[in-house]
Amino acid sequence: MGVPFIDIKRFEDGFLQEFEAKVADLAKGARFIGGEEVSGLEKSLSEYNGVSHTVSCANGTDAIQLALRACGIGRGSKVLVPNSTFWATYEAIINVGADPYIVDTNLTDLQMDFGFFEKAVEEVRPDAAILVHLYGWGSANLSKFRDLCKSKNIPLIEDGAQCFGVEYRKEPIYKDALISTTSFYPAKVLGAAGDGGAVFTNDPDLADRVRKLANHGRTSHYNHGLVGWNSRLDTIQAAFLNLSLKFFPERLKSRRYWAGQYREKLGNLGINVIQPPNDFTENGYCNVNLFSVEERPSIEEKCKNAGIGFGIIYPGAMEDQEGAKPFTKSVFGEKNARDISKRVLSLPLFPYMTEEEFNEVLKVFQT
Q1: pLDDT tens for residues 335-351?
Q2: In which residue ranges of the chain is pLDDT below 50?
Q3: Contacts for 244 with CB less than 8 Å, ≥ 6 apart
Q4: Domain count, the chain
Q5: What's the CATH number where 274 sits?
Q6: Which domain holds residue 69?
Q7: I need a labelling partner for 298 at 20 to 30 A (CA). Which of 34, 39, 87, 348 fits?
Q8: Exposed e or buried b for every residue in 69-100, given b needs 16+ CB within 10 A?
Q9: What pLDDT does 367 receive?
């Protein structure tokens, strides 16, 4: 029967009708930019994530650029970035005029390696660093990354596009970050009906700077204290997200249930499942943004033949991207990102997956 890698059309009963009514109401009043939907969403996101300030923006890539700019990063600045990440993390550094220094991946938690990071900090003396939380959890050394950067006065921007709803040591992962970002791309755990993003921080000055940068650097309607750009989240996207937040606990519960089923059934079959660090399971809460196994060479072709969708989310290292070659200043590590990209494959996982779909995926591992 085939199973999609992701299905973003599994809406709750009444969801579409409520959203359509909201869109009609917004259109009738020509309320398309700003307003209560946006301010309400920002308040709800702050409360959910345990932060003082949320600034919504047009997309997750802009969120990273806004965070970098708010931290004073610009032309000639030196920024550390992971070798395993989506291209947007890397290009955000280039787009603000800074220079990227790549740090390789840890083979255990698949996040940026802390040992290589320490070496890069000592040799590069960076002006900032970006830590990316991949797969729906974060680094086993998250507190070490934060403590080291704080001790060295290095702004640490945490790219949390994949970790909305994640808890670290029983607190929201964004809560204790200096500044962090997320994406509301429709395929994310909390997705919009189009592009969207947000920046989270507890620092009022950083929040104020991000908000100004995202709205043409405005200090008032026709006065501009900064050179920013237009990165406002539109009202219809905010309305969709406000409605989605109401159902988010149930969606997350469904994802976690099927992830648990995968772990149990695949574990019994001797499949090498990628596991989150303890601080995101026993002492926290992962959102299972991706459910991944280290079985790509043996099952990729089987998935294709059975019509089972799958994801090769990081098909290569940042250092090997053609667009990165003119800009990368140096690479710290042992080519772990290349190794990981050859063996990791992500399986179908989405809210309200059915038992029939789950069993179809299992058959790939049973033949």
Answers
A1: 999 999 999 999 999 99
A2: none
A3: 190, 191, 192, 251
A4: 1
A5: 3.40.640.10
A6: 1-367
A7: 87
A8: bbbebeeebbbbbbbbbbebbbbbbbebebbb
A9: 80
